[in-house]
Design brief:
The complex is a heterodimer of chains A (263) and B (286). Chain A is mainly alpha-helical. Chain A has 11 helices and no strands. Chain A is globular and about 65 Å long. Chain B has 286 residues and is α/β, with parallel strands linked by helices. The longest helix of chain B is centred in the C-terminal third of the chain and has 17 residues. Classes of the chains: A mainly alpha (263), B alpha/beta (286). Chains A and B meet through helix 1, helix 5 and helix 6 of A and helix 2 and helix 3 of B.
């Protein structure tokens, strides 16, 4: 039967807490946390041992670690979302009142836990750096960017699981995101890369808006696989509008000079 | 009394195969056993009763509600317990986690009362000791009990159990009968099975489905009665018999139209079912 049911916020909350606990202890997320910790340790070590260390030149080890945490979280969310496909439980759970679209929303809520963890940990790194080094361009927005990236990639993992239920696709897509890093020679259009870090706080806010827009789009696409309703269409339109405005601002107005605003 | 299951001229097709052929059925209480050979349409009927499959034609009401309407379907599902024929499991979850997860999907949101409910149903199926084992580490029989446990969550008013005793050892089957017969609130239970012993032991009503049609609907004893005068024993195999086999004492037990002077015996539900299914399949085949 077609899934066109609803669930209360209590159900979504309970599911999100359950899946959040499972996600936080999943092998993928733990590996991501380990890499983030290694990157952070390397940065801290340089700060203490190298007098010429600077935020701009040396924080990249920690930054890369947190990007990989986001990538591994995406894979973990995708893997969790593919549980029914993998374990052949689809029919069994079709007879339950909470439908698959509800479970997608809950899984995105569950991804808030690693997103929060990533934000807090990177915040701690930034705070530590600010006590040891001059960190002129760093704002709270840069710290929040990590959490937004985790949520956006998690949402993409859900959309992939809904439309192309193949467990190999998410790792390939995730690492493709990471590997297409524009590197040192950056151009303005590289701002569309979700992992780009914009130097000024004003720019970074628009990049977070861009990530939020993508999160809404991917979540709506994932839900639409099981529950095609007006609310999904509205979410798609809203997400697209946010993305369009954010990119327009970043590329056309706020970031006019190639290579001047991307880290 | 409100009828719990109402099927009116229900049809379901898979391509050219007619899995259910204008089924009319009303179940208002007790434990009903659904018997039938493989391919008779039992699982299709069970899946429709569990709201996971929609019929191609006909009307259905479950627990007084229309499963075609989204809001009413949710209400049905809140009051329904379903154990599919081949239940799947998240193998990396513990037994407790799996039932807890299903409990949330069943809208049991308060953590404490939900956990109490999970412990209760695990106790009912004798899995308390395995609560913290990973599902992948437990035996096939334990997994079937786990599937039953998740179906029992929240004291459902309607329990749809598709071959619940398949793969269980005799002791576990007896335990299953005990659990079903002692369910609180006396829910309406629909059991699909190949085990006629389970029907005799548990069911107040038996439905025999063959070729997508209801061939018998009545009590188990009435089902056995349909074979009266059609079962006999003899020292030799009888070519007139539809079915026959040699028993432990060396004599042959025959079913069909007995010859004159045959030593007729009291039929069992097995005899009746085999005669009904065999005859009906022959009719369907012809």
């Amino acid at each position: 039967m077609s899934a066109r049911t609803s669930a209360s916020p209590q159900v979504i909350g309970a599911l999100a807490r359950f899946d959040g606990r499972k996600l936080a202890t999943s092998g993928w997320v733990l590996v991501g946390l380990g890499i983030a910790a290694l990157g952070t340790a390397a940065f801290v070590s340089v700060v203490f041992t190298d007098a010429s260390a600077t935020w701009e030149d040396d924080v990249w080890t920690a930054h890369v670690g947190f990007m990989l945490l986001a990538v591994f979280t995406m894979v973990a969310v995708n893997w969790a979302a593919l549980r029914d496909h993998r374990e052949h439980t689809t029919e069994q759970y079709e007879s339950l009142p909470a439908d698959r679209a509800t479970r997608i929303v809950a899984m995105l809520g569950a991804a808030a836990l690693p997103a929060l963890g990533s934000t807090l940990l990177f915040g701690a790194v930034a705070w530590f750096a600010s006590t040891q080094l001059a960190v002129p361009a760093l704002t709270i927005v840069h710290v929040l960017h990590n959490g937004a990236l985790v949520l956006m990639l998690s949402s993409l993992g859900l959309a992939l699981a809904a439309w192309i239920p193949n467990p190999f696709l998410a790792p390939v897509a995730a690492f493709a995101f990471y590997l297409i890093h524009p590197g040192e020679s950056v151009a303005t259009w590289h701002a569309i890369w979700p992992m780009a870090t914009l130097l000024s706080g004003g720019l970074a806010i628009w990049h977070i808006a861009y990530l939020v827009g993508l999160t809404v789009i991917f979540a709506a696409l994932a839900q639409a696989r099981w529950r095609a309703r007006g609310s999904q269409a509205i979410a798609l339109l809203a997400g697209s509008a946010i993305v369009a405005v954010a990119l327009t601002v970043i590329i056309s107005r706020v970031c006019p000079t190639a290579g001047s605003c991307l880290l | 009394m409100t009828n719990t299951i109402e099927f009116e001229a229900v049809e379901k097709h898979y391509g050219t195969l007619r899995a259910l052929d204008r089924i009319d059925l009303t179940i208002s209480g007790g434990v009903t056993g659904l018997l039938g050979p493989n391919g008779a349409g039992k699982t299709t009927l069970m899946r429709i009763a569990a709201t996971v499959l929609a019929p191609d034609a006909g009307k259905i009401r479950l627990l007084g509600r229309d499963p075609e309407l989204a809001d009413e379907r949710v209400e049905i599902r809140r009051r329904l317990g379903y154990m599919p024929q081949e239940p799947g499991f998240y193998r990396n979850f513990t037994v407790f986690e799996l039932v807890d997860y299903v409990a949330i999907l069943k809208h049991l949101t308060d953590r404490k009362s939900r956990h109490d409910e999970v412990r209760r149903v695990l106790g009912l199926v004798d899995l308390t000791g395995a609560s913290h084992q990973k599902v992948r580490a437990i035996s096939g029989g334990m997994r079937r009990r786990l599937a039953l446990a998740q179906a029992l969550l929240g004291d459902p008013e309607l329990l749809v159990l598709d071959e619940p005793t398949a793969g269980l050892d005799p002791e576990q089957r007896l335990r299953f009968r005990e659990v079903v017969s002692q369910l609180p609130g006396r829910p309406v239970v629909l059991i699909s099975t190949h085990q006629t012993e389970d029907v005799v032991a548990l069911c107040e009503r038996t439905i025999v489905l063959v070729g997508g049609k209801v061939r018998f609907d009545g009590t188990p004893s009435a089902l056995a009665t349909t074979a009266s005068g059609r079962v006999w024993t003899a020292a030799e195999q009888d070519s007139l018999a539809i079915l026959s086999w040699r028993m432990g004492d060396g004599r042959f037990r025959h079913m069909g139209d007995p010859p004159t002077g045959a030593m007729q015996v009291e039929p069992t539900i097995d005899d009746a079912y085999l005669l009904l299914a065999g005859r009906s399949e022959a009719e369907v085949g012809s």
